[in-house]
């Protein structure tokens, strides 16, 4: 759902604000990347401090330089949602900036995962009293915000909340890549874990299913290689490509494909296996699926789809249990609804692509 902007921004103000927002987005995604596998605690801490610095730069620009700074200040006076979190960020950023104290996540953390990769989930550490006492009075007054909104809370979730706050101010403040996606997102899927992979992802799973279906898939294009009918519903499956690489298969209803095409996302058809080579060994972090590389640009060997017409099932997987299984993994009736959502989210967001 789109909400009206909370502040007014002139076109001339956007480049600097978007650049600072990009710094914030990149610091967030970098922190998440460092929580995977044997990620270094020092690298995690560096990303945390980069996040704090970028957030405060953006906060300062909006507080002191934006033409509509009065509207921004009013949000804090009203204690609008998200403002206390930003005050908490300001507090701990000032600790990092003005006191000889290393700001880093707590040394105690939770680790999840297995054969498909491990990930650590860290919390914000406390700020000792002797460190707090060295801060200016104005910063000291923000300590209650830190204790209420950061201390003891999982770091990644609060970073995403910070991004959501700034994005809620004005939609054009978000920095986007050449595909129109938030720079640095989506985050890479962690098997079995439900925390958001995207700042816009709704917390309620029912709403999140609708959100996934309403937005176009991530990636450059999709290539359909089979049609499969399951319990009277026509599905197509294939591979999502990004820069001639595919990290994940996809499965969609014919109706969903046509909605995506109407929204200008490109689909093709082809016998994909004839035009790709397995390059999984080149991507050790991509443990959840095989990685294939197209030998040539997709447009050279695949046929564009303007409207998907359904007929008799076709393709290598059409008459196999593997094809039916691919469909059922995203069915709320085929597996637990929770697991089905996580699988669909990973595929639709193309969130099996490791940081590159």
From TrEMBL:
Query: What name does the UniProt record give this protein?
Result: Uncharacterized protein
